[in-house]
Design goal:
Structural class: mainly alpha
Helix content: 55-70%
Radius of gyration: 42 Å
Strand content: under 5%
Strand order of the largest sheet: 1-2-3
Largest sheet: 3 strands, mixed
Number of strands: 3
Distance between the termini: 82 Å
Length: about 1200
């Protein structure tokens, strides 16, 4: 680099227009200077390299101006690179460069300013820069004078950054202060120079300069006043839309000006009167400006040092001005900002100043609190004053609490009492907040109980809350008094949380007896009345009022129970005793079954409430589940109908899922490590500890001891476990004991084993009150509970606990010499099927042993293809879902399993052919044939979700069903409808249940089950109209559940099939599917229907007219359920037809629809009188959409 010629580099820089080349040239120059052995010579040559442009012969042309600017920029860019490389020039060189660039501000206003500002900014950051040069730089720049505002915003920004860099440099700042003293002449020059700035980005820098000056320089009062005038002239600042937005927002500018106001306490004498004067302008100030003023005032009060000089002199003036913003204010944002200012002001006062200020404030508030008109506003001001510090709280509450008590006794207005109680509740909440901060305040003497313990606790309860509760519970209660009661309940929660503020450990201010009375009252509307059928008050009010009281009680309990843990056990005892009373008295006025579940859900919410900063506990969740088990055990002992069992099982299910979700959210996120998995040994130890402590055991018909269990759980510390894991493990134990209670082992001999074990229903299902249908519902709900618990376990945990086997043996263990069947038990007409289904649904595929899996799958194949099968439709549905699960979760990694699966499919094909043949020959009735066919479709549904395209051997059964089902002579139509089973949403095939799903399964199934048969939906030679219609039914039955994108490739043919089907299908499920698909097409791609609008409108009008006609007189074989289904289908057809008409105007331009307007308005008007509300609503929207067409 020794041979580098700087003149050549300068010329290259001036001539290039590429930024990358400019950078490269500058780097060459910088490296040459850095590596030079004689920096004086090299720096001199570098500076001299631009002489040809600095002193041109003719300076008037724009070309010379541009070239000169580029040449100067070459020097500035080189200095930038030298600074980045931490290369510092010699002090005398820096001084010469500062002098050179500084001279350009007075000699070259056009070309030299930007480059000079850049160069100087890099020079002042060099280590060899002399602080004394700072004043020279400012003086030189100020020579711009009026030409400053003529510079571009970018150039001015460079200068602002230069000024800011100088003032932020401590050495430069010290020199400036030494030179100018308190007069700070340099800032006066800057104020004159920059007074007209309007660019947002430059203003941000200018405000930063003024703030830095105020913070770092001890200026005189006059100078401070001038600086204040400079930035206050922009207040309140706003931002207009710009053609070249800078990214600066109005909030950014407001924040920058606000920092100037709050920069130093010397500004207080100017800032606070100025802001208060702005605020007192009344209606002339907009809400946004008023909030800006208040936020700026708040920043000043918070940040000013020496409050005796900057805050205290203005305290009364601020209060006098701001109190009316709350007293007479109506805008929430303004009120909120005002209260924050008052709180900040109070925090800056102490001692006599604080007492004097609060005394004046209380004089203004005392009358307003007594006045119903201003109680709420005065309460807000009181809370702002009291909540500032412990000293302010102690000082003002000693006067406020007695006054509120006196006013409550004297007031005759329920609404006034409500506001007063709300104020008292706010004071209690403030006190609880201050208790948490008390330990951090070094200035507070805790031995003095600074938060007035004597005013709160039992004293407040007996003097205020108890009389109010008794008044609101008296006879002839009004709606207004119900509002008072709700506020009193909020106060109960706040009162429970009051802690002592004196020295020593904190203790509850309310006595145990007071807490018990409070919880007994809160339990009445939240727990007792809902179960026992009583009202929340003696007013014959509407349900909404009672629900409001109930919600208020629940909210209070959620706040209070975590603060007084024994209360939860009390609530559980109330729950159990109330439901016993409710069951024995059998109140007819309410739904006790629903209330059992609702109150259990409420108790779960209360039990899962956790105060901020505390670790969640498993105790409440387990205690609630145990209480529900106790209730279920009592119902079983009373031989209650199965619908009561179901209510408790649903409640247990809800409580477990809610608790697990809540504990997951509340778990601390600080620990990234995952808790250890549940192992068999850990699980056994945990459950033994809980059961030994007195947990109920339904399978052993043993009640529990809730208090002992709660204590044991509170002290439970299991290594490597968290509360979520503990609750999950206990939930599984609950499922196990419920399964064992409701099932039994039966030993029978068969042709293979002399001591074969089967699982059947337990003794609770033998006789007693209740229908078989109610019992089946109970079993189904128990299966759903098992699924929710099992699926939450990891795959390793499921394997460790051997749940794959328990899915078939239902947690029973057998004698050593007996053999337990690993399939769905045939005892009791297969009614234990929902229990197996529930466990299987939640299992990972890998948790089911291959041998167990294949055995169970073969067993179900045999069972579900047998006829007659002695089981109810509900049980058969559970068996079908189990078939789907086993089909989907079968792992076919090895050849043996694959071979077994293919053999099962081959057997099913043979059974299917035989079934269809028997139905055709009348050897088997159609309903039986349909049941067998549906079960095989459920098998295919699970298999298709995890499809395997190749080899085709895996899809022979699917191919056979899709090809032959619609052409069956006796039940082709029914089989075509049943094809929707392949794609209907099923909970067992959801990801959360660990089903094996492939993302393209829907598209793949379309290509297999629908696409090949679309041509057969049109009339063909030697194909009957019946089979053609069946094919169409099958197409729409499947498409109804697919996404549009999955069948869009054949959309033209599908639309034509749909139009034909409008006249070919009967009103019912088939027509409903057709209309659903047409609606989806209209939503996704209306263009494909445009040429068919006429045919669609006339066809769908005809559909609606047919669906409107009353159902024909039922035949002797039609039952009520069939009639209800038919009625629902006709209603859905009418609704979908009207939805189609409603969406047409939004899908097409008016010119395409106007010809059909008159044709449609008449049937739409008639539809507005439909007997079904939803249909009427749709008709009204459709008619409105068509009426506006012109």
């Amino acid at each position: 680099m020794a041979n580098v010629k700087f003149e050549d580099l300068a010329l290259q820089y001036v001539l290039t227009d590429e930024s990358d080349q400019e950078q490269a040239i500058s780097e060459k120059a910088a490296i040459a200077i850095e590596e030079s052995t004689n920096s004086r010579i090299s720096v001199g040559q570098w500076v001299a390299s631009i002489n040809r442009w600095i002193q041109p012969a003719d300076d008037s042309g724009d070309d010379n101006f541009i070239a000169r600017a580029k040449a100067l920029d070459f020097l500035a860019r080189t200095l930038e690179i030298l600074t980045k490389r931490d290369v510092s020039l010699k002090p005398d060189q820096v001084k010469l460069l500062v002098t050179f660039f500084g001279s350009l501000f007075s000699s070259d206003h056009r070309a030299g300013v930007t480059a000079s500002a850049k160069a100087l900014r890099h020079l002042i950051s060099m280590k060899s820069f002399q602080p004394t040069l700072g004043d020279d730089i400012i003086a030189n720049v100020c020579k711009l004078g009026e030409d400053f505002k003529l510079q571009t915003p970018v150039t001015r920004l460079e200068l602002y950054e230069l000024f800011l860099g100088l003032l932020q440099d401590p050495a430069v700042a010290n020199d400036l202060e030494y030179r100018h003293g308190s007069t700070c002449g340099f800032i006066t020059s800057l104020l004159d120079l920059c007074k007209n700035e309007r660019d947002p980005q430059n203003l941000m820098k200018w405000f930063g300069i003024l703030k830095t000056f105020l913070q770092n320089f001890s200026s005189s009062e006059d100078v401070t006043s001038e600086v204040f005038k400079a930035f206050s002239a922009y207040f309140p600042i706003s931002l207009r839309a710009s053609a070249s937005p800078s990214g600066i927002t109005a909030d950014d500018l407001k924040g920058a000006v606000r920092l100037c106001f709050a920069a130093h306490h010397r500004v207080a004498s100017h800032a606070i009167p100025y802001l208060l004067n702005k605020l007192d302008q009344g209606d002339a100030v907009t809400v946004a400006v008023k909030v800006d003023i208040l936020q700026t005032l708040d920043a000043c009060l918070v940040q000013y040092e020496h409050p005796t000089q900057s805050v205290i002199p203005y305290a009364d003036q601020i209060w006098s001005s701001l109190k009316y913003e709350v007293r007479n204010g109506e805008v929430p944002d303004t009120i909120k900002a005002t209260l924050k200012v008052i709180g900040s002001l109070t925090t800056r006062l102490d001692g006599n100043d604080l007492r004097s200020f609060l005394a004046g404030g209380w004089r203004d508030l005392v009358e307003d609190i007594s006045s119903p008109t201003y109680t709420a506003q005065a309460g807000r001001l009181l809370v702002a004053l009291a909540g500032a510090t412990t000293q302010s709280f102690a000082s003002i509450t000693s006067q406020a609490i007695p006054h509120i008590q006196t006013t409550l006794k004297q007031s005759q207005s329920a609404s006034h009492k409500k506001e007063l109680v709300a104020l008292l509740n706010s004071v209690l909440m403030i006190r609880s907040h201050l208790i948490s901060t008390l330990k951090t305040e070094a200035s507070v003497d805790e031995s003095l109980a600074p938060l007035k313990d004597d005013l709160f606790g039992d004293a407040l309860f007996y003097q205020v809350y108890l009389p109010l509760w008794e008044d609101s519970s008296a006879s002839q209660v009004t709606i207004e008094q119900v509002g008072v009661r709700k506020k009193v309940m909020e106060g109960f929660a706040a009162l429970i949380g009051q802690q002592s503020s004196g020295a020593g450990p904190s203790s509850q201010l309310c006595s145990a007896s007071t807490c018990e009375r409070i919880f007994s009252w809160l339990a009445s509307p939240a727990v007792i009345n809902p179960l026992e059928g009583g009202r929340s008050d003696d007013l014959d009010s509407d349900n909404d009022t009672n629900q409001d009281v109930r919600d208020a009680a629940v909210a209070a309990l959620k706040e209070a129970v975590p603060l007084y843990p024994p209360a939860f056990q009390f609530l559980l005892q109330q729950y159990l005793s109330s439901l016993k009373v409710a069951y024995q008295n059998q109140f007819a006025s309410h739904d006790i079954l629903l209330e059992i579940k609702l109150v259990a859900s409420t108790l779960c919410e209360i039990g899962c409430s956790c105060p901020p900063g505390k670790q969640p506990s498993v105790s409440n969740s387990v205690s609630l589940v145990n209480a529900l088990l106790e209730g279920l055990l009592w119902m079983l002992s009373e031989q209650a109908p199965p619908k009561f069992w179901t209510a408790f099982i649903c409640s247990i299910h809800l409580s477990i899922t809610q608790s697990l979700t809540s504990l997951s959210k509340q778990a601390p996120k600080a620990s990234p490590s995952k808790p250890d998995d549940i192992t068999k040994e850990w699980y056994a130890e945990l459950i033994k500890n809980i059961e030994d402590a007195g947990a109920p055991r339904l399978d052993l018909n043993r009640s529990g001891t809730p208090d002992l269990v709660a204590k044991a759980l509170e002290g439970l510390h299991t290594e490597g476990a968290n509360v979520h894991k503990q609750l999950l493990a206990y939930s599984l134990a609950v499922v196990k004991q419920l399964y064992l209670r409701f099932t039994r082992l039966d030993y029978q001999a068969n042709e293979v084993n002399s001591n074969q074990s089967y699982v059947g229903l337990g003794k609770d299902f033998k006789g007693g009150d209740g229908s078989v249908a109610d019992q089946d519902i109970c079993l189904h709900q128990l299966g759903l509970l098992a699924a929710s618990v099992v699926r939450t376990l990891s795959e390793d945990e499921q394997k460790a606990l051997d749940l794959g086997k328990d899915a078939f043996v239902l947690f029973h263990s057998t004698d050593a010499d007996s053999h337990l069947d690993l399939g769905v038990s045939s005892l009791d007409e297969f009614r234990t099927a929902p229990l197996s289904m529930g466990i299987l649904e939640g299992l990972y595929p890998g948790a089911i042993g291959s041998v167990h899996h294949i055995t169970a799958l073969k067993n179900l194949c045999t069972v579900l293809t047998s006829s007659p099968l002695p089981c109810s439709d509900t049980t058969r549905a559970a068996l079908d879902i189990t078939f789907t699960i086993l089909s989907n979760k079968l792992r076919v990694e090895d050849s043996d399993i694959t071979r077994e699966k293919l053999q099962i499919q081959e057997n099913l094909i043979k059974l299917l052919n035989k079934t269809w043949s028997d139905v055709s020959n009348s050897d088997l009735d159609i309903p039986a044939g349909l049941r067998i066919s549906r079960s095989i479709l459920y098998f295919l549904a699970g298999d298709a979700a995890r499809f395997q395209s190749t080899p085709d051997d895996h899809n022979l059964l699917l191919n056979a069903v899709c090809k032959r089902a619609p052409s069956q002579p006796t039940m082709g139509r029914q089989l075509s409808r049943c094809l929707e089973i392949l794609v209907t949403p099923k909970e067992c095939l959801e990801k959360e249940n660990h089903a094996i799903l492939k993302r393209l399964s829907g598209g793949w199934l379309y290509s297999r089950a629908v696409q090949p048969y679309i041509p057969f939906c049109f009339p063909r030679f030697r194909v009957s109209k019946e089979i053609t219609a069946n094919r169409s039914v099958a197409v729409f039955a499947v498409l109804k559940h697919l996404k549009y994108e999955q069948y869009a490739s054949d959309i033209g043919q599908i639309v034509r099939i749909g139009i034909r089907s409008l006249s070919a299908f009967d009103i019912g499920a088939d027509m409903e599917s057709c209309l659903s698909v047409l609606l989806q097409i209209l939503d996704k791609n209306p263009g494909v229907l445009e040429e068919h609008i006429a045919g669609l409108i006339s066809g769908i009008i005809a559909v609606y007219e047919r669906a409107r006609k009353p159902t024909e007189a039922p035949g002797p074989e039609q039952d009520a359920a069939a009639l209800r289904v038919e009625g629902r289908e006709r209603t859905m057809c009418r609704k979908l037809a009207l939805e189609f008409f409603q969406r047409l105007p939004n899908s097409y331009e008016a010119q395409y629809l106007v010809p059909y307007r008159q044709l449609l308005l008449r049937p739409l008007s008639m539809a507005c009188g439909d007997s079904v509300r939803e249909v009427r609503r749709t008709a009204l929207m459709a008619r409105k959409a068509w009426q506006v067409l012109a």
